[in-house]
Amino acid sequence: MRSRTFQEYVQGPIQLGMGLGIISLLARWVTGTTILSSPESMVKYGVFGGIGYAIMGAVALFMFSFIGKRVRQDFPAGLTMGDYLKTRLHPLGYWILLVILVITSLHILFIQGMAASTLCQFLFDTPLYVGLFFFFVFCILFAGFGGLKLIHGFAAFQVVFMFAAVILIPLYFFVKEGIQPVYDGIRLYHPYMLVINKYDLWSFIFAGLLVGFGQFFFDLTSWQRLFMIELKKVPLTFSLSGLIWLIFPLSFSSLFIMVIFTGGFTDIHSILEGLANKITTPFFFILFVLCAFSAITSTFGACLHALVSLIVANMIVPFQNQTNDQQKIRMAYLLSICIGALIFMATLFYSPNLLELLFYSGNIYSALLAPILVIVFSRGKVANFIPISAALAIAASYIIQPYASEFQSIWFSGIISFTIIVVCTIFSFIKNSWELRKV
């Protein structure tokens, strides 16, 4: 059924309670990245890397509950994150953050496209563009055209598939193989994975916290859900979502441990092939495929819908006089097709490592962390130097990136934005004090 109004297209017909709010958040945050990058973290940084990946995301989502509570107290009603930013920023700062929001959202969609590409190569013996084409068409139809009502209609089934997979498949493996043989196999073939005192591991965790906080605090979909959840249930909904989300990366990491404990591997594709050989029961194999497909499509759909809603509501409609609801919805349909086509082409012609791709955007999220905290916890409109500090920090971090490690550039980005804010705040305070003395 078509949405009758643009608000219904963006927010759905009902306000979310705690149960549906948790389902909606899990459908957004259990992603293709969760399935593939958490095992890659484990492979690259050891077992504790996989555990660290899980903790980083859970803590970030838990901390967002405090952000959400403050936002809803100051701004009870809204459609998008852009609506809130408009009340807190001057025009220059507002448009700077809107542009960054669009860029980061496109990046998230591209990451999910890459996860879909990996899954298609694993499952289908056909040209890559065939599987990806059907994936993008499905996402555009159910999210871009269906609106939030259809997204939530799919979300419950998607979360059920994901929960079933993360509980039943590892349980099946550990009962079948036993825990001791798995531990002995890891010690024999991959002893480095049991080492905790590695410098890279701690660098990964601390940088990941910066990236995780920035990503969760600056996510369009999370903010959109924030305005849909009942005010008194906001803190508990986000906190419980973080606690439940912790299960998923830990389970996926344990699933891939079951594959590599019997020998070596080359990359994520070889691990997926080993997983296919390990899952000899058709039921569990189909369940894993449904879980992976649900995670990728739910995230892509939610992010596509949130991005389209932001562009229409905050970037197009303000310049269009007398635009009615049906015109706004048609704009959303057209934008969904254009964005889907753009990500489809980018996914076909560019194939980076998923974990590297995730942390390549870390400079942006790290730079945004201090500004978004200042915006949320300040009173009234904030000065333009707050969003400008993020833009300058992002530019500076990418300039030095060729001369620093990936984690160092992430730290540098966060430090630069924080330093600019502190210096400008002190300067502004001194200037105001001097002017008061002159009066």
From TrEMBL:
Q: Which UniProt keywords apply?
A: Cell membrane, Ion transport, Membrane, Sodium, Sodium transport, Symport, Transmembrane, Transmembrane helix, Transport
Classification via InterPro entries: Na/Glc_symporter_sf, Na/solute_symporter, Sodium:Solute_Symporter
Where is it mostly found?
Answer: membrane
GO molecular function list: symporter activity
Which superkingdom is the protein from? Bacteria
The UniProt family comment states: Belongs to the sodium:solute symporter (SSF) (TC 2.A.21) family.
PANTHER family, A to Z: SODIUM/PROLINE SYMPORTER-RELATED, SODIUM_PROLINE SYMPORTER
What is the protein name for this chain?
Answer: Transporter
